[in-house]
Design a protein that fits this description.
105 residues; two-stranded antiparallel sheet; 31% helix; globular
Length: 105
């Protein structure tokens, strides 16, 4: 979100915060082998408070955008990537979507 903020301001975009648009692995704490564990990430209210004019995916609750998940393996990452591709293909149907920028790291 912090990476997207300057781009959104510069390009006058209203970002859409999508639950399944993230780097492989998901949201987790710890970086040493055997010490990583899932982390819920920011919840809906926290996102809306900090980025008040952004659109937040309805599936993101106050429990966090990654709540209830395990650390994502490669198989799940590929499945999720396919879901994102299908979502992007639906954007072609909407005339108001002239620019799309995905920010993932």
């Amino acid at each position: 979100l912090e990476t997207m903020a300057p781009l959104a301001a510069r390009c006058e975009l209203v970002p859409y915060v999508k639950r399944n648009l993230h780097e492989q692995g998901g949201c987790f704490e710890g970086y040493l082998p055997g010490q990583t564990r899932p982390h819920a990430g920011l919840g809906r209210s926290a996102i809306q408070k900090e980025f008040c004019d952004w659109v937040v995916d309805d599936s993101i609750s106050d429990a966090g955008w990654y709540s209830g998940y395990e650390i994502e393996d490669e198989v799940r990452a590929r499945e999720r990537a396919a879901e994102v591709v299908r979502w992007l293909e639906t954007l072609d149907q909407h005339a108001d979507h002239q620019r799309v920028a995905l920010v993932i790291h």
